[in-house]
Design brief:
Layout (H helix, E strand, L loop, with lengths): L5 H6 L3 H4 L6 H17 L26 H4 L11 H8 L4 E4 L2 E4 L6 E2 L22 E4 L6 E4 L1 E9 L2 E8 L8 E9 L2 H7 L10 E2 L3 E9 L1 H7 L6 E4 L9 H4 L38 E4 L5 E3 L6 H4 L2 H14 L7 E5 L3 H12 L4 E6 L4 H9 L2 E4 L5 H8 L5 E6 L5 H10 E9 L9 H11 L2 E4 L5 H13 L8 E5 L4 H10 L7 E4 L2
Parallel strand pairs: 14-15, 14-17, 15-16, 17-18, 18-19, 20-21
Antiparallel strand pairs: 1-2, 3-10, 4-5, 6-7, 6-9, 8-10, 8-12, 8-21, 10-11, 11-13
The structure holds zinc ion (ZN) (2 copies).
Length: about 525
């Protein structure tokens, strides 16, 4: 991350860092010197590549003064090199500042999706025949493709409020892409951002991070890395990890500082990055998602519908937690506390892994508990029955080998969680607890039973592919989890159904832009 430039420190979102962690000394020099030369040569800000030469070792110079230009063309005009490759040398962002807003500053170089009818909109001022990427929209009833010039997205502007805004379609470089979002699931984190319990300091942002769509445009490098072509249906994880730290190298991208939403440092993450950060399209509640070079992209198996595929997040988290973090062995007994979408993902993962008995614990009889039962779990109602006694009877006193606690309850719920665990069991916490916890009530059963207690977050790359395969196989009735669908203009309603829990029939809610 670039911390050396005064500009970076001032606005907190350094362009060099936004480009993916590259910060060359040339870029740093440019940040420092360009504002000072601007009036002298009438050179715009340094990230306007049409004026400065980004291929030069002295990128703050205008093209006419660029020594490198005499040897090889390296500027945007008449360039034979790719613009993004040139950007890569300097760490520049190619967005043109105009009247306080940013617009795409160079022509798209990615490959267009099929069905494009033509160039959308007039060329940007000062550009020689820019190639813009049109987005596609299916017209209701006719299956006709129409070109849209601007992207509609639901932006969470303040507490409990989103508004529809339009953004220019970004261009793509060789290592980037664009996704036409087909469906985006909602999860508890969206509600926390929507109510500003989290991320209040970040400003307006496009929420939504359980994203499935088709590739609209993709650069050559990105195409090779992601193994996708325009038109392919893919699932995109929310993480944009650095790929180099210890967590990334050991398959725990959720803990990477570059994408950790609980980090105090600036981070990039889908559904949690403000629209202020170019090119703004960082969330799934949008017609188009910008695919950053560090995006984690998975092919969706043929025949799997996009809204069912959005369940890849709760299911892959369940696979990671139950199998990898929980070390579940066949013929084990599993208790899942809190039968929301993620709890049901854990139930499905445990059933798929061959657990002998799976219990799903909820407060009362509900469509969620019924869905858990349909997946193969024994439903337990905490308000009506002695759940610890029921598990003791079913296991002849051995209790559970694995307990996954996803309920945001306080001390009382914690005591039940630990009571359900047998000797040597693994106890996983996937939700934070509130209220005062008595230290002895917490530590006594852990020590006495020799429990392994872990906190779990996120997933690994392989778990997503496994989840998509399970969804496509149709082995489990996971379609029961798909309960509510909303349009892009109904995002507020969707978030309230998901977060306020007033509709007991809601299990997994999705927005279909
Ligand atoms: Zn989530
Ligand atoms: Zn990392």
């Amino acid at each position: 991350m670039c911390t050396s430039s005064p500009r970076s420190r001032r606005d907190g979102w350094p362009r060099a860092w936004v480009r993916g962690g590259r910060c060359s000394s040339a870029a740093t020099a440019a940040w420092w010197w360009a504002p000072r030369f601007r009036n002298w040569w009438s050179v715009p800000t340094p990230w306007t590549r049409t004026a400065g030469c980004s291929g030069s070792r002295r990128p703050w110079l205008p093209r006419s003064r660029c020594g490198r230009r005499k040897r090889a063309p390296c500027c945007a005009y008449g360039s034979e090199r790719s613009g993004s490759a040139a950007r890569g040398r300097t760490g520049f962002r190619s967005y043109r500042r105009r009247g306080g807003s940013r617009e795409a500053g160079d022509g798209g170089r990615g490959e267009l999706g099929s069905g494009v009818l033509g160039s959308a909109g007039p060329p940007a001022a000062g550009r020689a025949e820019p190639r813009q990427l049109p987005a596609l929209r299916r017209v209701a009833g006719g299956g006709v493709l129409a070109v849209i010039e601007r992207v509609r997205a639901a932006v969470a502007t303040e507490r409990l409020r989103t508004e529809l805004r339009t953004f220019p379609l970004p261009e793509v470089g060789p290592d980037e892409g664009l996704l036409r979002v087909e469906a985006c699931g909602l999860c508890g984190t969206d509600w926390e951002y929507y109510t500003r319990q989290r991320g209040a300091h970040l400003g307006p942002m496009i929420l939504g991070h359980e994203i499935v769509g088709t590739i609209l445009a993709v650069g050559e490098e990105a195409r090779r890395r992601w193994k996708v072509a325009p038109g392919d249906r893919v699932a995109v994880e929310e993480f944009l990890p650095c790929g180099e730290c210890a967590f990334c190298r050991t398959g725990r991208p959720a803990l990477c500082d570059a994408t950790d939403s609980r980090s105090t440092r600036p981070f990039l993450r889908y559904g949690a990055t403000p629209v202020e950060v170019a090119p703004a399209l960082w969330g799934g509640f949008s017609e188009v998602l910008y695919l950053h070079p560090r995006a984690l992209v998975h092919r969706v198996p043929d025949g799997l519908s996009p809204d069912l595929a959005t369940l890849f997040v709760p299911l892959s988290n369940g696979i990671r937690w139950v199998r990898r973090d929980g070390g579940l062995r066949p013929r084990s007994t599993v208790v899942v506390i809190g039968p929301g979408a993620h709890g049901l993902g854990c139930v499905a993962a445990a059933v798929e892994a061959g657990a002998a008995q799976v219990f799903a614990l909820g407060r009362e009889r509900s469509p969620r508990l019924e869905a858990a039962q349909a997946l193969g779990a024994v439903p337990l109602e905490a308000d009506r029955e002695d759940v610890v006694g029921a598990v003791r009877d079913a296991t002849q006193g051995r209790m559970a080998d694995l307990v996954v606690d996803l309920a945001p309850s306080g001390a009382e719920g914690l005591a039940t969680t630990l009571a359900l665990a047998g000797k040597g069991a693994v106890v996983l916490f996937a939700a934070t607890k509130h209220g005062q916890l008595a230290a002895d009530a917490f530590s006594e059963p852990i020590v006495r039973k020799g429990l392994v207690v872990k906190g779990v977050r996120g997933r690994d790359f392989e778990a997503v592919d496994e989840a998509l395969a399970v969804l496509a196989s149709g082995r489990l009735p996971l379609q029961r989890l798909r309960t509510h669908r909303f349009g892009l203009d109904e995002v507020d309603q969707a978030l309230r159904v998901q977060g306020e829990k007033v509709d007991p029939s809601a299990i997994h809610v999705a927005v279909v832009p």
